[in-house]
Structure formats: structure tokens, C-alpha cells
Design goal:
This protein has 841 residues and is an alpha+beta fold. The chain has 4 domains: 1-203, Calcium-transporting ATPase, cytoplasmic transduction domain A, CATH 2.70.150.10; 215-286 and 628-690 and 707-840, Calcium-transporting ATPase, transmembrane domain (Up-down Bundle); 288-314 and 488-617, Rossmann fold (3-Layer(aba) Sandwich), CATH 3.40.50.1000; 319-483, Calcium-transporting ATPase, cytoplasmic domain N (3-Layer(aba) Sandwich). The strands form 3 sheets. Strands 1, 2, 3, 4, 5, 6, 7 and 8 form an 8-stranded antiparallel beta sheet that branches. An 8-stranded mixed beta sheet has the order 9-23-22-21-10-18-20-19, with helices on both faces. It has a 7-stranded antiparallel beta sheet with strand order 12-11-17-16-15-14-13, with helices on both faces. A hairpin with a 6-residue loop joins strand 14 and strand 15 (413-419).
């Protein structure tokens, strides 16, 4: 460990100092773009086609001399804008909260304790603790370092990492915001934040570049454009028909605009962004952060879930369970507490600690330190006069790490090594018989579900220099350590749920094959066949693809092989979700359809490459996210089915009276009222629907499946046609029965709104709930109740009724019209049952 001074031992800032510096300097962030103001949101909403049509209709009323209708319409424009802006701002706040949650984290020393905070909360004077894979959150001066190297390419353009090795009395070394720690660790005192950093001064931004439209956005955009085209054509046709049949071009244009308003699917983009944004918030409540909203679309299609073992399937709370030296075995699992550790095992534990980081974050190294604290004297200052001179890190080719210590009380330097048993055997050059004996004992421990590490030591003459590789030391084998990491209690049920949902769970780990098999058996993962990294390396492409298709447990796998496994699964048509935590996992996370980074032990690089971040590194949270992904897609499909269906009777009630010479029923003001009903229904009622158990008993959605296939569109249009026929027939009956034109308009409008409620239940119907009535959430009850209350007001309060050209009718007649609209649920459900029967046949 190279040090500049003793600052690493400082307690860091206290809360009062943090508050004072934040008040002075603000937050640690760079304004990549101006905030989306309320005025900007209003202007965006006003430019929407629906509002332009409303304004156009108001202008025509003024030209016709009907200022009253124009003012009523203007009032509705203001009301709809207010509702839409509220909904968009609420969505923006949800997305802003998610961006804050998933922003890079920073490890700081404050009040004498290590804390993990959001990067934007860093202040000047903070002590940052940087480790491999971290994104540096602010500019600062390096106080101490251990083999630290930083990628500064985003600032300098130089792709070669820059070594940061401070020397007492030497030049002050600095690190810069936005750069990446690619090796080692260090302690930094923050000197500049936000726009005061080098990154801020040169005007660069950490914001992600805008991505293209997602498949759902493209699909809905295409559907919206087609419907808009149909709307324009029918609008012109209706305007011409009205002018030809009845005379009056202004009236014709007005009713043409009314028809266009009834067809225009302006709800589509609103529904999609609301569903995805609030779906992400729901997933966040399950401790899964969404970095890319498009990942939510893919969750329900997942067919393969590749997961690590440690910390995801297990608790990541390692405890030393067994020590093995020279044929002797000491079992410590089960909470065994010894009066004293037998002398035989002292050296094994001592060198395991020496081969670990001095301030470890790795759960295994922490377990060594805890055990040494219990049984070895002066553990915190184990050999306090020894100096760590060199670290040799793990590599894909050698799963072992070594520390070279300079020991003043000894002639030779001491080298401590730990790693996979086969790697340590290789370093020690054990004879075949001795190697077989070690591997047999390691296998016995692994069969008990233990993670097995071997420990070795070497003496190295100081005048021989520092070798470049670990193989140049003359290591001697010491013994084995078995560590227990209990399976999380919820994992077996979550794996079983995945299996029922048609999602294959693959465990990919760096552990011993026997350990992997034992944990897989406990979790319910098929471990009949276990493939290792060397097994995979020896396969050709065809054999590799077949092996990946038929195996669920992979052990001793390198990060490069993780990527190969993901690519092989994708090549055979699977939709792959992949977990990872390290710098080297980033390619696999990026390649997977859904990359899932570990929140607690994951690096910033892994999080930036991933689509989802697990806050608690919990496997069950991944399964929850898949369930929610399926729920979001199902509810979105229901919402779109309803939206298409509810527009059909509106179109019919606008067009039919014009074409058949009946009194006109609907004007722009009525369409505006209906929009106030349809929008919250689409984006709030359906979004809040809970997921039934059947969702995780169905196979994954096929790859390439669209939200609204032709069959779904046909079904939606059928629902709309049934309601249209009922309402047009009711209009004809009411006219024949002698009701006045404004009374007919009132009754048909009441029936129309009530039939929209019937369509809600029909669109939500499923195999588990054929009527859709069982989906009644509190949100649905409030929206439906509010809709009926608003309908009651505008049709029974004389002043309000006059604004809509309604007549106040007898309560029994009003209830009859409402009942008729609700009763359309029966033929709708019958049509749904018939359609499903025909499809099944």
C-alpha cells in the first residue's frame, strides 16, 4: 500500500460539515440539459393533434356565431390540458426518482464510518474509497493507493489506463470525475464537484445518448399513424356527406372534426409511457431498479435466467466452516465455538488473512478476518511492521491471488497466496499423488456445499526483485479452507416459480463443480450435469451450443465464457436475462437481452452495462421483476384493447346520424368529456390491475410477439361493433318513442358512458376471471365511481346539462339508459367466449 500521509485513518466529514458544504457548492451534478419546465410541458401538450382539433372546432363555433359553445369547448381544452399536464409531470417525477436511485454510488468515509451514498451527494472534502470498477464521482487528490490504475480516456482520449502510485514527497496525484478505476483501490480527498470538475469545465456530459424507439413504441406508432390516416379520410368524407346531404359547409367541417377526434388514438403514447414509468416504480418497490424502460417490455419474454451463485442464490454471508491441513480436518460449521484454535490451523488462517485485502469487502476475506479475530492475537495489526509491496490479482488463466510482504524481522520477504485448489496446486507444483489427495479432500468439502479455497506461502529473497507472475515464486502448500454461504430461504420457491413459468434457470459460477452441484440441488436447479470452464474451452462451436442447451449448471467459468454462454443461448432463440457484478461481466450483461447488475457488490461498470440493478442482490427479486414484466404487458394489452373498442361506438354515434339524416348526437364538447373518461381509464385503471397466479403458470411470450396482433385488433373491433349496434338501435328506439332530440342525446350519451364501463370489464377478462369483475381494484372503483358521478352531474344539473345540449330526464329513464349501457357486458362476454371457442377449435 503506497501512502501519501495518514489521512486514510481520518474519520471524514461529519453531517454538519456536509450540510454546510452542500449549501455552499450545491449538488454534485452537471446540468446536461435545462429542466423540463411546466411551460414547456404545457406547450408540448397543446401541440398534440387532439388539442389542435379542439381549438379548430372552437374557431368554427365562433365563425358560426356560437360564442357560448366556443367558450364551453375552451373550458374543456383547459381542463384536459390540466389533467394531461398533471399526468405527464407525475410520470416525469417517477422517472426522475428512478434516475436518482440508479445513479452511480460513492463509497465515502463520514463520521468515522464507511457509507455508500448517491454520487450526487458527494461534497468537497469527502474521503472517497475507490475500488476496481468504480466510476469516480468527483475530482480529488489521491491520499493513498494500492496498485491503482484509472481509465481517463473520456477526458484525454488516451485508451491506456494511467497508473496512480503516490510516493511520499513526490508529485501530488489527482483523479477526475467520470473516469473509471480499472485496477486496485485508493483513498481520495474530494477537491471539486459538479461543474467545478474538469469534466464540468470542458462541457462534457455523463448523460446517456438517446436510444431509438423500442419495439412497442414502433408498433403503437405505426398503428396510430394508420388510424390517423383513416381518421383524416373519414373526416373529409363525413364533411362532404354532411354538406351534400344537409347543406352548410361549416357544420360539415365541424362534424368532420368531431369524427376525427373520435378516431384519433392520442391515448396510445400516454398509455405506453405511463405503464412503463409506473411499472418501473413498482419494480423498484421490489428492490429492482430499472435503468432502461425498454427492458420492461422484454421481461415477460424471458426464457432463460442466468444467475450467479454467491450473493444471488445465497446470502453472501460467508462463514468459515472447515479447515483442512495435512490430512486433519476441523469442522466449524453449525456455529461451533472453540475455546482455542488448534495450533495446526494457525498458519493456514494467518496466511489466508495475509493473502486478503487489508480492508476487505469480499465476504470470504471478511470471514477469514472474523475467524482470525476470534482465535489469533492482534488480528487488526497482524504483523504491523510488514509492508505490502506487491499484489498479484486473479486472472482468467489463474484463479489465485498473492500478496508479497516485506518483513523487516525476516531475511526473506513473505508471499501469501489463496485461490481455487487446482490453481494453488499448480502454483505449488505438487506431485500427482499429493495433488490427487488435495483434490479429493476439496471434493469432499465441496460435496457439502462449501466454497473451497486453498492457501500457500513462499519465501522470496528481497535482492531477487519482484517477479512479474505468481509462478516465479516457490510456493508450498498449507491447506484448505471451506466456507459456507447458506442458500437464501426464498430461492427454492422462486426457482420453482420460474420452472412453472417456462423460464429455465442456469447457475453460472466460479466455484468448484461439486459446490455448484450441491447448491443447485438445494435450490431446485437441475444439476445432473455440471460443465466447467475447461470443459467448455475444449468444445467446438456445435458441441458448445448443444452443451449450453442441455446443461443448467456451469462451474469454474470465466467472464469471457459467460459471454459465450449468453451468445449461444441467444443464437438458439432464447430471451436471456443475465446477472453480473464485476468489470469483466459487463460484456455479458450488455449482450444479454436483459442485463441485471448487483447493487451491493456490483461495480459501476456492471451497473452501467445493465438494464436492471438489484438493490439487495436477491434472486427472488429477479423473479418478482419477471412477474411484474408479464403483468405490465398483460395490462397494457388490456388497455389497448379497451382503447380501440371504446372509440368504435363513438365513431358510430358521430357518423350514423349524419349519414341517415337523424338528429346529430355528439359534438366536440361531448368528445372532450369522453376523453376525460377514457384517458384515466386507460392509463390508471388498467395499470393498477394486480397480477393473478396464472401469469406465472403460462409459457413466456413468444419472441417477436406484438402487443396487438391482428386477432386482438379484430376482437377489440368486434367488442366496439357490438356496443355500437346496441347504442344505434337505442337511438332509433328513442326517436321512434317520441323523445325530443336533446332527450335522445342525453339517453344515448348516458348509455355510451355506461357501455364504456362494460368494456372495461370485458377487456380485463381472463381465463381465471371470465367476467373481469374480479379485477376490481380500489383505483378502478374510484375511477368508475367518479365517471358515473360526473355523468350524473352533466346530465341532471340543469345549468351543466345546458352546456352539453342535454335535457334533464326522469330518474327512471336515466337509470334505464345507464342499465342498458351496463347490460352490453352480457353480449360482450358472450362474444368473447365464442371467439375463444373458435380459436380453440
Amino acid at each position: 500500500m503506497q501512502r501519501m500521509n495518514g489521512s486514510q485513518e481520518q474519520a471524514g466529514l461529519n453531517e454538519a460539515e456536509v450540510a454546510a458544504r452542500r449549501a455552499q457548492d450545491g449538488w454534485n451534478e452537471i446540468a446536461a440539459e435545462k429542466p423540463h419546465t411546466l411551460l414547456a410541458t404545457v406547450l408540448e401538450v397543446v401541440r398534440e393533434p387532439m388539442f389542435l382539433l379542439l381549438l379548430g372546432a372552437g374557431a368554427i363555433y365562433l365563425l358560426m356565431g356560437d360564442a357560448h359553445e366556443a367558450l364551453v369547448l375552451l373550458g374543456f381544452v383547459v381542463l384536459i390540458i390540466a389533467v394531461t399536464v398533471f399526468q405527464e409531470r407525475r410520470t416525469e417525477h417517477a422517472l426522475a426518482a428512478l434516475r436518482d436511485l440508479s445513479s452511480p454510488r460513492a463509497l465515502v468515509m463520514r463520521n468515522g464510518a464507511v457509507q455508500r451514498i448517491a454520487g450526487r451527494e458527494v461534497v468537497r472534502g469527502d474521503l472517497l474509497l475507490l475500488t476496481e470498477g468504480d466510476r469516480v464521482p468527483a475530482d480529488g487528490v489521491l491520499l493513498s493507493a494500492n496498485d491503482l490504475a484509472v481509465d481517463e480516456s473520456m477526458l484525454t482520449g488516451e485508451s491506456v489506463p494511467v497508473a496512480k502510485l503516490p510516493v511520499d514527497g513526490g508529485e501530488t496525484l489527482r483523479v477526475f470525475s467520470g473516469t473509471l478505476v480499472v485496477r486496485g483501490r485508493g483513498t481520495v480527498e474530494v477537491t471539486a464537484i459538479g461543474e467545478g470538475t474538469e469534466l464540468g469545465r470542458i462541457g462534457k456530459s455523463l448523460a446517456e445518448t438517446a436510444s431509438g424507439a423500442s419495439p412497442l413504441q414502433r408498433e403503437l406508432g405505426l398503428l396510430a399513424r394508420r388510424l390517423a390516416g383513416i381518421g383524416i379520410a373519414l373526416c373529409v368524407l363525413l364533411a362532404v356527406s354532411y354538406a351534400t346531404l344537409r347543406g352548410g359547409w361549416l357544420d360539415g367541417v365541424l362534424y368532420g372534426i368531431t369524427l376525427a377526434m373520435s378516431i384519433l388514438p392520442q391515448e396510445f403514447p400516454v398509455i405506453l409511457i405511463v405503464f412503463l414509468a409506473f411499472g418501473a416504480r413498482r419494480i423498484a418497490a421490489r428492490r429492482v431498479l430499472t435503468r432502461r424502460l425498454s427492458a420492461i417490455e422484454t421481461l415477460g419474454q424471458t426464457t432463460v435466467l442466468c444467475t450467479d451463485k454467491t450473493g444471488t442464490l445465497t446470502r453472501n454471508r460467508m462463514e468459515v466452516a472447515a479447515l483442512a491441513v495435512d490430512g486433519e480436518l476441523l469442522a466449524l460449521d453449525g456455529g461451533v465455538r472453540l475455546e482455542a484454535l488448534p495450533e495446526t490451523y494457525h498458519r493456514l488462517l494467518e496466511y489466508a488473512v495475509l493473502a486478503s485485502e487489508t480492508d476487505p469487502h469480499d465476504p470470504m476475506e471478511q470471514a477469514f478476518l472474523r475467524l482470525a479475530g476470534d482465535y489469533l492475537a492482534n488480528t487488526e495489526h497482524l504483523h504491523p511492521d510488514w509492508q505490502l509491496a506487491r499484489e498479484y490479482e486473479l486472472s482468467p488463466d489463474l484463479l489465485a491471488m498473492s500478496h508479497l510482504w516485506q518483513a523487516p524481522d525476516r531475511r526473506d520477504s513473505e508471499v501469501a497466496a489463496k485461490g481455487a485448489p487446482e490453481a494453488i496446486i499448480d502454483l505449488c507444483h505438487l506431485a500427482p499423488d499429493a495433488a490427487a489427495h488435495v483434490m479429493a479432500r476439496a471434493g469432499e468439502l465441496a460435496d457439502r456445499g462449501l466454497r473451497v479455497l486453498a492457501v500457500a506461502h513462499a519465501a522470496h529473497p528481497p535482492d531477487a526483485g519482484m517477479p512479474d507472475i505468481q509462478h516465479d515464486f516457490e510456493f508450498r502448500f498449507i491447506g484448505l479452507i471451506g466456507l459456507a454461504d447458506p442458500l437464501r430461504a426464498e430461492v427454492p420457491a422462486a426457482v420453482a416459480e420460474c420452472r412453472a413459468a417456462g423460464v429455465r434457470v442456469l447457475m453460472i459460477t466460479g466455484d468448484h463443480p461439486r459446490t455448484a452441484r450441491a447448491i443447485a440441488a438445494q435450490a431446485g436447479i437441475d444439476g445432473a450435469r455440471v460443465l466447467t470452464g475447461p470443459d467448455l474451452a475444449a468444445m467446438d462451436a456445435a458441441t458448445f451450443a448443444d452443451a449450453v442447451a442441455g446443461c443448467c449448471v456451469f462451474a469454474r467459468v470465466s467472464p469471457q465464457q459467460k459471454l459465450a454462454i449468453v451468445d449461444a443461448l441467444k443464437a438458439r432463440g432464447d430471451i436471456v436475462a443475465m446477472t453480473g457484478d464485476g468489470v469483466n461481466d459487463a460484456p455479458a450483461l450488455k449482450s444479454a437481452h436483459i442485463g441485471i447488475a448487483m447493487g451491493r457488490r456490483g461495480t459501476d461498470v456492471a451497473r452501467e452495462a445493465a438494464d436492471l440493478v438489484l438493490v439487495e442482490d436477491d434472486f427472488a427479486a429477479i423473479v418478482d421483476a419477471i412477474r411484474l414484466g408479464r403483468r405490465i404487458f398483460r395490462n397494457l394489452r388490456h388497455a389497448m384493447t379497451y382503447t380501440l373498442a371504446v372509440h368504435v361506438p363513438i365513431i358510430a354515434l358521430v357518423a350514423a346520424p349524419v349519414l341517415f339524416g337523424w338528429p346529430v348526437l355528439l359534438a366536440p364538447v361531448h368528445i372532450a368529456f369522453l376523453e376525460l373518461v377514457i384517458d384515466p381509464t386507460c392509463s390508471i385503471v388498467f395499470e393498477a390491475d394486480e397480477a393473478g397466479e396464472e401469469l406465472m403458470r403460462e409459457p413466456p411470450r413468444p419472441r417477436g410477439a406484438v402487443l396487438l396482433p391482428p386477432s386482438r385488433i379484430a376482437t377489440s373491433l368486434l367488442y366496439g361493433a357490438i356496443v355500437s349496434a346496441a347504442l344505434v338501435a337505442f337511438d332509433v328506439w328513442a326517436l321512434d318513442a317520441g323523445f325530443a332530440a336533446d332527450e335522445v342525446r342525453t339517453l344515448v350519451f348516458v348509455a355510451l358512458v355506461a357501455s364504456g364501463i362494460a368494456l372495461i370489464f370485458t377487456a380485463r377478462a381472463s381465463a381465471a376471471d371470465p367476467s373481469g369483475l374480479g379485477q376490481g381494484t380500489a383505483v378502478a372503483r374510484w375511477v368508475i365511481g367518479g365517471t358515473l358521478f360526473a355523468l350524473l352531474l352533466v346530465t341532471t344539473v340543469p345549468w351543466l346539462a345546458a352546456q352539453f345540449s342535454f335535457a334533464v330526464v326522469a330518474p327512471s329513464v336515466w337509470l334505464g339508459a345507464c342499465t342498458l349501457g351496463l347490460a352490453t357486458l352480457l353480449p360482450l362476454l358472450a362474444a368473447r367466449w365464442l371467439a375463444r371457442a373458435l380459436v380453440a377449435a
